[in-house]
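To the structural biology subgroup,

Please find below the input and predicted structure for Glycoside hydrolase family 92 protein, which we are adding to the shared reference set this quarter. The sequence is reproduced verbatim from the submission form. If anyone notices a discrepancy with their own records, reply to this email rather than editing the shared folder directly, so we keep one authoritative version.
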Amino acid sequence: MLLSLVTVAANAQQKTTKVKKDEVDYVNPLIGTAATGFAKGLDGGGTMPCVNVPFAMTNFVAQTGENKMSKMSYTYEDNSVIGLMASHQPTVWMGDYGYVSVMPQIGNLRVLPEERKLMFDHKDEVAKPYYYSVKLKAAANTNIKAEIAGSNTCGMFRFTFPKADQAHLIIQGINLNPTLTDWANDFKVRMKELRGYVHVDTVNNEITGYNPDRQSAQLGPPLKNFKGYFIIKFDKPIRSYGTWDNQTIKKRSKEQFGTRMGAYVSFKTTGNTVVKVTVATSFISIDQARHNLKREIPDWDFEKVVKSTRDNWQQQLKKVQVADITDGQKTIFYTALFHTLLFPREFSEYGRYYSAFDDKIHNGVSYNDYSLWDTFRALHPLLTLTQPERVNDMVKSLLQMYQEGGWMPMWPNPTYTNIMIGTHADAVIADAYVKGFRGYNIALAYEALHKDAFAAPDGDVQKKWGDRDLWTSFEARGGLTNYHKLGYIPVDKTKESVSRTIEYGIDDYCVAQLAKALGKTSDYNQLMGWSKNYKNVYNSSTGFMAPRNADGSWSAQSDSGFTEGTKWTYTFGAMQDVPGMIALMGGEKAFADKLTHNFNDGHYRADNEPGHHYIYLFNYCGMPWKAQELVRQHTSWQNFRNAPIGINGNDDCGQTSAWYIFSTMGFYPVTPASGLYSIGAPQFPYIAMNLQNGNKLVIKATGLSAQNKYVKSVTFNGVAIKDHTISHEQISHGGTLAFTMTNIPQKD
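Predicted structure (tokenized):
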């Protein structure tokens, strides 16, 4: 008889099992779920203990509060649950869409979230990537056990009820709560336009419906046909049922439209009564949701779903093996790897997908929820190593969005949003091309990248393009007109001007690499010229990147014009031209001195993506030992811990975790589309990564210890590395990257 995986999960969580752990068993999905960071001024990780397969379309999670943009569905500091949720919220700063939830209850029927919530204690909680459970305090000394198993588009909930004359399952199909919106002026419009729907079917023992809500809808174009469809099936016959709309409960009602509403089923329990509920989701149709359910959960075998999802995670996580480290370190590492395997989410449903860019159904494969401003830096480069089989489809998905909507997205959720800055899909695609990925229409790719680099968005010079402005049109590279005309973006014309100037230069460099490869010499020369535009916002009198006005004068507001940061955050931001930055700032010594001040004086923020490459810049100015020292410091407990307050700063759809994975391995992709990695210092004695085509990369650190954090020498396949760089081409063919560690900083 097979040992119950649910039992193994519970025992592993409570540290009582002696069963040998697989890689998946080290994952702690509660890491990063706290809302507040470990250090003052830092946000929490913005993660959630979701149960689903890697890159799943739908995340199944306990909902501890009403989520919105800036609040996750699960927050560790909360002590109550309002439902088990099928969610599509990718991260804390983006919205949910097409969601639905199911909540167990006994006693008098209470349908609104604030009334139906049940308290819980974290000691009664088990969280694994393939299983979640919690005991909900339904009454004095009485609990309801709630469990989650999840797959890709579908999940199963299992509820164990105590004896009760009145037991209920409450379905919430849509939740437009005006007290939660940050967009008061737009909310009345959404309330009029959006109406969810539920239908109770006593013949097929199910509740069907759809939810057209997108919490970030005000930041993108309208979508007439968008709906999150769902089917909720029960393994017990529906006898007593009804619908509800706000506070109005309608017994025996089978159909309901509304903006804050749902349905319910009621029954009598005799004690330890188990009720199973399957939830199927789709963005195509109810029929597609039914097809998804047949593919993923064809019967009521809860344990079978748990095992299948566990096996899926294990297959992906075991691609990277670590040795000679503590269990605590393994938990941090494999949880970080887990976080890099969630987004962008797979959006297609067995050969078809709904496009939120032309509001139509298409054949093909699709991914969505790309946090591109964050993830072009480390996550997507990591996926070229850990998930090469998905890279071409991720690129094709971005190109499909271009064909269907006219532009590639900046931050799709699931359609265009003008969140953050830059067209960093350019970097993702160019980086994939440089690394040898060709499974997409290359001519179309260049067309899309060329448009980003050369075409200004509609109304460019009339708009300020402020962060999270209500939708008028797609932003693309807002301010591009002046960027081309003046060589920089003026602060008196466009918001976030300095950051835009620097980041547009990064994208120009990336597009240039594709232009060069395709023989488009004129475009290449033009783009490489623009990639140096960051120099035009460097104020040599202050030694910082600074805002300039359209007339060429420096703005008196020296800290204006930046995105989520200050002049310290962006002064070293031109990752596409590190030698050029060094020369601009007076040479290696002057550059190194200023970079050292950035770290020593508390300006560096490990939680902020624009600085994720800063540690490695010491390699370029004669101080590699300093990079090695800082890698040790910033991959430590200071920023990563085995605790809910486990990630300093938002994980941003796996970007921060990808930075951690690269940094522990001993190399980092400083410049996208260059095909090169900058050598740091490994943090584990042994790491092995299974690559494509059966190749394997082994990383060894001989003599590594808390004191021996510096690199004495490094070789790849026995050949010494002298310039602190290694190519993707070398790594992709496999081999041994061998470090000899010492306690003495090496000056060369």
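Summary notes: The chain has a mean pLDDT of 94. The chain has two domains: 46-298, 323-742.

Regards,
Lab coordination
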